[in-house]
Design goal:
This is Renalase, oxidases 1,2-dihydro- and 1,6-dihydro-beta-NAD(P)H isomers back to NAD(P). Keywords: Oxidoreductase. It is an enzyme of class 1 (oxidoreductase). Its EC number is 1.6.3.5. There is one protein chain. The protein is of the alpha/beta class and 323 residues long. It folds into two domains: 136 residues, FAD/NAD(P)-binding domain, CATH 3.50.50; 161 residues, Polyamine Oxidase, Chain A, domain 2 (Alpha-Beta Complex), CATH 3.90.660. It has ten helices and 19 strands. The strands form five sheets. Strands 8-2-1-12-19-18 form a six-stranded mixed beta sheet, sandwiched between helices. It has a six-stranded mixed beta sheet with strand order 6-14-15-16-13-17. A hairpin with a 2-residue loop joins β10 and β11. α1 runs parallel beside α10. The longest helix is centred in the last third of the chain and has 19 residues. The radius of gyration is 20 Å and the shape is globular.
Length: 323
């Protein structure tokens, strides 16, 4: 293996790309969105800055701690808090650090993307295997590689494989089919004045329709009051096809106690694959090939930022071990 194409520039794809490139592999990353990061997503609404995907990350394992320390040392991540308020307003300090991106969660992804060959705004249209290598059509360009990494959520990755007639071992197919996700609708609300979200700027409501509320100004990434509202999974599923205006209106009413002022502007983002509901037990799904194909992401042996990172790392190490 001398070359690899990675589909998806989320955290798993970026970590896998860096690991492979550091080992001397020529890597190309193809990303459908116009920016890197996946659910490590920071966007603007007028002059407000919002983290509206992953809100923070924690460290549970020694291996991820080593990686997270490099982000902290590089200045792209820092500690936010050691606990949040709940729906009653009671603070829950547990001594366990929650980390944030210094300029938003996208800052970590942008740091990882440095010096990588990443092509954004490209929808992968076709996959072909010719026995020894992969051929990928994305946008109007063709890419060839000895190995392929798919980091999209399992249903989307499986649909891409199936629509192109790529055969999979039965065990790999069963593993991918076993993975399911919960959706999440995010509303970004630009406020006319300071909000009422309790310190340090986050409330873990944990219900439906209201699941999470964060003040990005208190968090330190927005110069103006900018509140992120996450709906619970059942409500998000129920309103998957509702108009944005209706979704905003309903969630703003649910979150009115945390707003405390008028709303100047809103934006809605639908995370169809927000959180794995039934993750796979191993860190990746490997189809040996030839040519090799490997699936990874936060639904493989561990969710959230840590799970996505370690899955991408394990997938890259598997490819290096097998070459």
């Amino acid at each position: 293996m001398n070359s690899c194409v990675i589909i998806g520039a989320g955290l798993s794809g970026l970590i896998a790309a860096r690991t492979l490139q550091n080992a001397g592999i020529t890597v190309t990353v193809l990303e459908r969105e116009q920016k890197v990061g996946g659910r490590m997503r920071t966007d603007r609404v007028q002059n407000g800055v919002f983290d509206h995907g992953a809100q923070f990350f924690t460290v549970r394992s020694e291996r991820f701690e080593e990686i997270a320390q490099t982000w902290l040392s590089a200045g792209v991540a820092q500690e936010w808090t050691r606990g949040f308020a709940d729906a009653t307003g009671e603070q829950h300090e547990d001594g366990h650090p929650r980390y944030k991106g210094t300029r938003g969660m996208t800052a970590v992804a942008e740091y990882l993307a440095q010096d990588l060959d990443i092509r954004t705004g490209l929808e992968v249209k076709e996959l072909h295997e010719n026995g020894q290598s992969w051929e990928i059509l994305a946008g109007d360009s063709n890419y060839a590689a000895d190995a392929l990494v798919l980091t999209a959520p399992a249903p989307a990755a499986l649909a891409l494989v199936d629509s192109n007639g790529i055969s999979l071992p039965s065990k790999a197919r069963e593993a991918l089919q076993s993975i399911s996700y919960q959706p999440c609708i995010a509303v970004m609300a630009l406020l006319d004045g300071p909000g009422e979200v309790p310190e340090p700027g986050g409330v873990q409501v944990g219900g439906d329709p209201l699941f999470w509320v964060a003040d990005n100004h208190q968090k330190g990434i927005s110069e103006v009051p900018a509140v992120t509202i996450h709906a619970g999974p059942e409500w998000s599923r129920e309103h998957a096809h509702s108009e944005d205006a209706k979704v905003s209106d309903l969630l703003l009413r649910e979150a009115k106690d945390y707003l405390g002022t008028s709303v100047k502007a809103t934006a809605v983002y639908r995370w169809q694959y927000s959180m794995p509901a039934s993750p796979y037990e191993e860190q990746f799904v490997y189809a040996e090939g030839p040519p090799p194909l490997i699936f990874c992401g936060d639904a493989y042996a561990g969710p959230k930022v840590e799970g996505a990172t370690l899955s991408g790392l394990a997938a890259a190490e598997k490819l290096l071990e097998a070459r």
